[in-house]
Known about the structure:
Layout: H1 17-29, E1 33-34, H2 35-38, H3 44-49, E2 54-57, E3 61-62, E4 65-66, E5 72-73, H4 83-94, E6 98-103, H5 114-125, E7 132-136, H6 144-152, E8 157-159, H7 169-172, E9 173-174, H8 178-191, E10 196-203, H9 209-221, E11 226-231, H10 248-261, E12 265-269, H11 279-283
Parallel strand pairs: 2-6, 3-5, 6-7, 7-8, 8-10, 10-11, 11-12
Antiparallel strand pairs: 1-2, 4-9
Amino acid sequence: xxxxxxxPRWVNKKISLKDCAGTKSALKGLGLNTVCEEALCPxxxxxxxxxxATFLILGKICTRRCSFCGVKxxxxxxxxxxxxxxxxxxxxxxxxxxxxxxxxxxxxLPDGGAQVFVDTIQSxxxxxxxxxxxxxxxxxxxxxxxxxxxxxxSPDIFAHNIxxxxxxxxxxxxGADYRRSLGLLSYVKECDGAMRTKSGIMLGLxxxxxxxxxxxxxxxxxxxxxxxxxxxxxxxxxxxPVKEYISPERFLRYKEEALKAGLRHVLSGTYVRSSYSxxxxxxx
Length: 284
């Protein structure tokens, strides 16, 4: 139960610490962070048991204060120059064929950490294996030079999450801007029209259906290819509460609506996250 809201029967995924142990130990041995752990993702047991993980670069302290997110906030340390090569070693160890690289927001760095994304992509490309690379980036305050450098490093997917409807940004995404995030997705396509782009939104924060429809149209209007739609689940005390649990039927309806708006491939469901089943988007 969450502040008077009873979790429905379809919100019942359990996390097995035993299933997580092997992957967690391997990543810890390499000094690597994952968004799976730092953001308290409910899919961690499922993904770690398959030796899958989404790597979190640029440390694990974020300079933004998004009230929906479980990642720690504060003053981060300087980037570790060995991190890109350690990520590549983690990918080699796990035997991944599709890799998702995300980061905390680093407003303290001149380029927002863009060069570390580039270095990480290059380290992954140097591996002697067939590999597709997806980056899930912050907005870089729409620094076009920083964004272009990542595009030129040629990830297979460039992702940036819109997260919620514009009305809820002041409450949910302190320091972010809805139009700026749309601008990033548009600019990636401007840099390289063939690059696949992706975004994600979460539901249950108090958004209205017409607002969600508007977000679908706005995201599709940037030329975006892929979209994930999932249920917001609060990371804990001090974060935004869940206002509503979205039924599986509504998730299906939202998927159909997003496809009609112009998205090419959409995953929609309670436990869908931006990096969940990430390889499926390219396969589709």
